[in-house]
Amino acid sequence: MLGYVIKRLLQLIPTLLLVSIIVFLMVRIIPGDPITLLYGVSESGGTSEEYIDAMRDKYGLNDPLIVQYFRWIGGFFRGDMGTSLLTHKTIAKELTNRYQYTIILALGGTVVGSIVGVIFGIIAAACHNKLGDNVVMVISMIAVSIPSFFFAMLLMLLFCLHLKLLPSLGLKSWRHAILPIATLGLGAVGMIARTTRSSMLDVINQDYIRTAKAYGTSRFQIITKYAFKNALIPVLTAIGLRFGSLLAGAALVETIFTIPGIGSFLVSSVNGRDYPAIQSTVLVLAASFVIVNTLVDVVYALVDPRVKFE
């Protein structure tokens, strides 16, 4: 297993290189120049074009694209992610300060979505084509269909404005985290519930389950001890993908609840055409996603001895 983990981590390097090239080229396609947006150009009393050009030279934006790319990617792999054009702080410091908030939201949303989604999926599979199954499927469809920003505003209206039970902005305590985590968890519930149901139904129809029934094993034991354990691999895959996507996809929720996470930092960087911040942030998120998926693959062998890594 150790060899497998090392191999997967080594595969991270070409993956990040490919992502870096795509991101570097994509941000150059975005209309607008970062220096012009920062300082502006005006013919009467404003910033002169000569000053703008001098600032572009200072930040190396007048250099050929290939020179800019290798300067940035070389610094990134040396631990120097560059300096933000908007905040004038090192990007490494910005991400360090913000990463904790994104981790709290992503982990909390994944845990809530996983617990509720797995329970719903098991209920749906156990009550296949019955009332419980239909109810769970309707709830799952609603959870997947409701946009996160709309659900977030509903929660804020109910629990912050009308009931006044929870704070609405920031992430200063566990009470502040309840609403954003609930918002992110809702989307995970639908996907994980449907995955769990589908996987459980495949397992329940296997011969060894019918044999366990013939031996008089209780329905509860069949579901929890045999069926769910053997249906866990696809569920773990769904959970891992959901956690990875929340690391990069919590930007909207962070913006609504005014949480200074990586997502909100990335959004402000895109709005300000902050090339170094966009490139390094996306690369860090890509690395996090690959590492999470590697950990999920390792967990496969722990929950199912049939899984072998060659």
Alpha-beta classification: mainly alpha
Mean pLDDT: 83
Strand residue percentage: under 5%
Give the helix level as a range of percent: over 70%
Q: Given the structure, what is the number of helices? A: 14
Write a structural description.
The chain has 310 residues and is mainly α. 76% of the residues lie in helices and 0% in strands. The protein is globular, with a radius of gyration of 24 Å. It starts with a helix and ends in a 7-residue tail after the last helix.
Key descriptive features of the protein:
mainly alpha; 14 helices; 310 residues
Strand and helix map with partners:
Elements: H1 2-29, H2 34-39, H3 49-58, H4 65-77, H5 91-126, H6 131-145, H7 148-162, H8 174-204, H9 207-214, H10 219-230, H11 232-249, H12 251-256, H13 262-271, H14 275-303
Helix pairs in contact: 1-14, 5-6, 5-8, 5-11, 6-8, 7-8, 8-11, 11-14, 13-14
